[in-house]
Design a protein that fits this description.
2 copies of one chain form a homodimer. By secondary structure, chain A is an alpha/beta fold. Helix content of chain A is 26%, strand content 32%. Chain A contains 8 helices and 16 strands. In chain A, the strands form 4 sheets. A 6-stranded mixed β-sheet of chain A has the order 11-10-12-13-14-15, sandwiched between helices. Chain A has a 5-stranded mixed β-sheet with strand order 1-6-7-4-5, with helices on one face. The longest helix of chain A has 14 residues. Chains A and B meet through β2, β3, β5, β8 and α8 of A and β2, β3, β5, β8 and α8 of B.
């Protein structure tokens, strides 16, 4: 079965606005774009997503995947995005079964969440088997450093979340894809879409690690597990539900990862510690809050 | 009409978990609690909110208010929260009209958003008249300083958003209420609930300012305007939709507010600049990114 046909609708990621600073001076600053994209599945309106607009087709594909509305990329014939009308038209080969019923149950999740079929997802999670991937402290530092060096809309305009998928093998950490969006659920959904479109070769290898600038929420942990990625790293902290879900399924969560510091909250057996790489301990007074 | 009867269900706001740090040491760290609270209106299930759990009754009240499901606090007879079963039972005096239809349209908003009746909200926004409140640079600095000094779950456990309502009058800035939650939409909804329960006297005065740790999204701007608060301050930046909506309705947005620095993005006529208070300019190399 051929991959779905996707348009490549592009739109500017930032716009300039004027602002007044604390010295009373007029400044021109960049802010991230934010667009409404209404998704139609076989001509039926499904949802409106607010997005930066970098990869709208992959976002829609990943949204359908992570909401469990399609089970395989083969079900999609095409996704056509037209920014003129702010619409993404999804065409399926055979329609989506019981779509009305399956999108009826709403849960407002914590972290930039959307109404997801949460109860259903948790049941599915328990039946998932995560690969036995482990990551070394050196690889973890390589991930944090790669993110630091990444050119990004965040650097130029702020106010977006970033997500990246890494391959961690042979003591290396290679960034496969980096996505930003105004909502972090969009960024991870876009990566899910990308993984479906690039499912051969390297992506299939069970050596994956996920990086997110956002908090380690249950939603992030669940989506990562669904995509078969057993290690999630963040510069932020973890929420209680994120912690509970990660512990239950043995997914390794690493938070507060900046420079050489981090905290591994769950599944530490997946993290091969190399404390010598951490450098000298800071004195208590030097520890940032 | 008497105010609704609210229970005062309390639950611990943090829990301790163990984590492994970069030196390979086991640490005990606090993380914010996160609870599922299913809202029933007159015994009919409405939505499940994920919350820190500090003020569940005010959260539910403000959620109903900000979703425009109730028009006046008088419509509510009682809100009873029972953490044993994770439920909030809302009893109304006369039912909510067309509740099924009014909760059917879903939009996934950018910032920790929930499916809100977004189109409808925008129409309403255009008919709102914001009070002529202005704020001085000194008051703005007082707001930022009050937030800095506030004891918080964020300081002890991280990973939560904070919101505060200030009264800005006679060159003073007084914090009326400070709320944190795992999702910032919850924090602002809780303040909306608090405002309804404390609608007399000071709260009615049109001298209000809103502070949020989160980004200045359209959702934040719209909710603030609905609550009659014409100035919103954040330590984060602004999104494009937040910028557009704020500009359209003349709401003053101030972002990147830390220490003595800030950027006023919209309605600068509401900000009485006192550049002498800003202190000396930093040289370009000292400016943080």
């Amino acid at each position: 079965m051929p991959l779905p046909h996707l348009t490549r609708a592009a739109a500017p990621l930032t716009r300039e606005v004027s602002a007044v600073n604390e010295h009373g001076e007029q400044d021109t600053v960049s802010i991230p774009a934010e667009r409404a994209l209404t998704v139609y599945v076989d001509k039926r309106e499904l949802v409106t997503l607010m997005t930066l607009g970098a990869h709208p087709e992959l976002l829609v594909l990943g949204y359908l995947r992570n909401q469990r509305l399609v089970e395989s990329v083969d079900e999609i014939q095409s996704i056509t995005v037209d920014w003129e009308v702010g619409a993404a038209a999804v065409r399926t080969h055979a329609g989506i079964d019981r779509i009305e019923e399956r999108t009826a149950h709403r849960v407002v999740t914590t972290g930039c969440g959307q109404g997801s079929v949460f109860g259903g997802l948790m049941e599915e999670i328990d039946s998932l088997e995560l690969p036995g991937t482990a990551v070394t402290q050196a690889q973890l530092y390589a991930v944090v450093n790669a993110i630091r060096l990444q050119e990004s809309t965040y650097k130029s305009a702020g106010s977006v979340h970033g997500c990246a998928l890494f391959s961690v093998r042979d003591d290396q950490a290679a960034m496969l894809v980096f996505v930003e969006d105004v909502g972090r659920h969009n960024a991870i959904d876009t990566i899910a879409g990308w993984m479906w479109m690039n499912a051969g070769g390297d992506v299939a290898h069970p050596d994956k690690l996920f990086y997110t600038t956002g908090r380690l929420t249950s939603e992030m942990v669940i989506k990562s597990a669904q995509m078969g990625v057993p290690v999630v790293v963040s510069r932020s902290g973890i929420t209680q539900m994120g912690h509970e879900v990660a512990q239950r399924i043995g997914l390794c969560t690493v938070g507060r990862a900046t420079n050489r510091r981090f905290l591994c909250y769950t599944a530490p057996q997946r993290l091969l510690l190399q404390p010598a790489l951490a450098g000298p301990r800071l004195r208590a007074t030097e520890v940032s809050p």
